[in-house]
Structures are given as C-alpha cells and as structure tokens.
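[Q] Does anyone have a clean structure-token version of this?
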Amino acid sequence: MKFFFCKTFTPWLSRDCFDTDEAFFRWLSRCKSVFATLRMVLIVLAVIPLLLGYVTDRRPIMLLTILPLALVLLLTVALERIDKVSGGQNNP
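[A] Here you go.
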C-alpha cells in the first residue's frame, strides 16, 4: 500500500519501488506526460468560468477559476521535481 501511494502522489520519490533505474525513469516519463496533459486540461477548465464571468459581468463566476489554477500550480511543482530527478531528460 505504501508503494501505491508513493508512486501515485510522489513519483519523484518512488525510486525504491522499482527494481531497475530504467523502470523508474520510464515511470517518471509516463507520469510527466500525464501531469502535463492534466495541467493543460485544468487550464482550459479555468479559462471557461473566467470568460463566462467576464462576459456576463458576474464576479462570483470568476472565482471558480481558483480551484483549477491551484491544481495547476501543484502539478507544475510536481513536474519541476520530476525534471530535477530525471535530469530534464525524456526517457522512453
């Protein structure tokens, strides 16, 4: 169970969960691509209420952008840590 949570929430610290470094770097590469895709989806989800609030002149709708943008920030931090561990390389 510990390995599941470590791999899922802190993939850059999960080197001990893998038998070889190659498997670890493949896992980091997959996590990096998933995180980058998820980050782009969240940015689009943040833009929609922002534009709706601007067009309808309703500020409370604009506040709905806070949650997706906070998640984007967390994903960006995770991506930076993955880059630091992998040396910025895109391993297959």
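[Q] Thanks! Anything notable?
[A] The chain has one domain: 21-86.
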